[in-house]
Amino acid sequence: MREMTLEEKIGQLNQVGASIYGTTDESGYEEMAREGRAGSFLSLHDPERCNKLQRIAVEESRLGIPLIFAEDVIHGLKTVFPIPLAESCSFEPELARKTAEIAADEASACGVKWVFAPMTDIARDARWGRIAEGAGEDPYIGSLFAAARVKGFQGSGNIDEKHVAACVKHFACYGAAESGKDYNTVQLSDNNLYNAYLPPYKAAVDAGVFTVMTAFNDLNGTPCTVNAPLIDGVLRKLWGFRGVVVSDWAAVAEAEYHGYCENREDCAAEAAKAGVTVDMMGHAYDTFLLSLAKKNKKIQKRIDELCEQVLTLKYRLGLFKRPYADLSRGKDLYTREKLDVALEAAQKAIVLLKNDGTLPLKRGEKVLVLGKLAADKRTMMGCWCFPETQESTIDVLSGIREKFSADYADSADFLADVSSGDTNGYGAIICVVGETNRESGEAASRAFIGLKDEDVAMIRAAKKTGLPVVALILSGRPLALSAINSDVNALAECWHLGSVGGRAIANVLCGDFAPEGRLTASFPRETGQCPVYYSHFNTGRPYIAGQGCRCKFRDCEEGALYPFGYGLTFTKFGYSDLRAEKTKIGKGDKIEISVRVTNIGERDGAEIVQAYFRQNSCKPIRPVKSLVAFEKVRLRAGESKTVKFVLDPDRLGIIRTAALQPERAKGRCEAYVGANSEDCQKINLTIE
Q1: pTM value?
Q2: Are 396 and 472 in contact (CB under 8 A)?
Q3: CB-based contact 177:217 (threshold 8 Å)
Q4: Which listed residue (121, 138, 218, 248) is catalytic?
Q5: For position 419, what pLDDT does the model report?
């Protein structure tokens, strides 16, 4: 720091590169590295190209400070895992830790030491395309997966050669964008902010995340990238975060468009004051900070603080000792072990929504597969993936053909020759419908999230044949499926599952794997219900069937079509003997509840037993239910198990400040246990 010029310090705060979806223009990169005018580059994951730039920075720049190469490694780099929303449906944070660790291994082998993940935004409006990148609507699930992914990316302590710096994003509340429209404004009460939206970010910070990315949106009128109370106040002072804060793409300069800053110079000053360390592609810091610092000693002191954060990150990443990528590590990144984990993650992400006994199908059975998406490798990869991984991806049709005798047509035209009188020996029709990879993710908000007209028509035409119809939904978000729900015999949400997604789907179809996934985001009946989520507040006129002036839509049945926590398998489970050790909970006591779960079907299977809690009287009000615990149990046919939950009232009460310390729950409360957020048994409690 003492040897650096002011210009070199500002250079460390400047990040340049290209979008993952764009072409990388590297003109000027070498000069910037040589002159110390950039501290990090993004969207470079070729180890030879990274090493070339790194060699210039280390061997030809004045001080030899190494570069950091950053990338959007959202759900894998070479080995592609299910989109994070899908992965969260496993209800297995440890599995997410494993997939993040593999992604870190591959990224570091490619020269990348900083990944812009995990996204921990709570998202309750399925119209928002970036719901694909997070863990859904629930802060408890969101917090568990945030911490797990941070630990997977980073390992423990300083980073070794196989781990990378994680970046929790988008701070804060990007998932609450108004109307589900990307980059849109966010207006939240303190009650919602503290209890629903901030906890997953805090969980990532507590897990030791090295970096944080600011959000594009404004929060209650202040753009997040220039929001000093949020960044310097909450993140740094209250939560004790000491790492790097990076803006999202050009978000520093965009504070002018928000109408908050007068010009880009003002943007640079406000972002630096707020505590944003690195300006990603905004070109506000490298253009204006030097002149600002010469006029303002406080800005100069702030530049020193921010530069120190970047250098500290580089030391923690080991870049001063090991600046170069080991080219031998990147020669064969696809391994059987990694693909086995990808298959496990993909199978556990699939959520069976409906089944009248049609599934599982008989292995080797002759089936007809319909729909353009069935043979679409790129869509199976999902959003935020690299084109070079497409060739090795197993699409739905390829996976089905590993297990069945399958004919294929990309539309319903083929059905003209298939009637109830001449079915060509087909045992079932499998319709693959939903949305492409480009219809979810960033800049992919949708005003209508139902199926396309041609998909609905295809399913209805298939139904007319009299054959069993299985609908497989490929999507990056919950879709409104009411239009086809009654027309199918079986319905499975298959998401965008990554490298071996087609094989995972086929394994479920033939029964080699019994589905375990449970929804972490509610599926609306119709788009107009959005946002729809289970842990909503009650009203003074809560919905009661058959009553008029109640909180409801006149033209849509109330509630989600498929609620949070919902999912079927190839067997059935019964719940009985729900009990509490005590229903009056004294000071210092825990809440101990248990339930007996029995596999009442004829096949072995897994059930995710879910515990919810409600405090009935609180100022301000609490949600009708909040998930507080869960346990996945595997039971053989006819087997029973007593599942116990021990809950601490001191952790269940309302959060009133940004420090996120909950109060003790008191008074009349309710504990719920069941298979999902709606199908629960209840115990009334009184807590002193």
Answers
A1: 0.97
A2: yes
A3: yes
A4: 248
A5: 64
